[in-house]
Design a protein that fits this description.
By secondary structure, this protein is of the alpha/beta class. The protein has helices spanning about 85-100, 115-125, and strands at about 5-10, 20-30, 30-40, 50-60, 60-65, 105-110. It has a four-stranded mixed β-sheet with strand order 3-2-1-4, with no helix packed on it. The longest helix is centred in the C-terminal third of the chain and has 17 residues, at about 85-100. The two termini are about 30 Å apart.
Amino acid sequence: MAERILIKASIIWDGISKNLLPEDAIIIDGKRILAIDNFLKIDPSYYDKILDFSGLTLMPGMIDSHTHHSLDASLENYLDRMADDITELKGRATALMKKDLGSGVTMCRTLGDKEYLDIICRDAV
């Protein structure tokens, strides 16, 4: 039997409509999102797990459709840094992927990196 999960939040944005959904919850059964509904109308005893993110807003992950994880634009002469050793580039890519994830980016379209670093990162994730 699939695990039933209720994820509560103060505001939910579904990523499609212009409306924000206050005091709502995401209802999950196994790996499927079944619905978004007002959690004041939901019987919590039905769920195996309740994740409470009260005070926070939930929204779908964002997509970065053009990135090169080994390029860090905050570094001086960052384009010249493509010549850095692959070990240095792997460390930089790991740090930038973590930074992306922390900012809400959950999918990236990487347009190539030295020595197929983009493929290495994809496989590692």
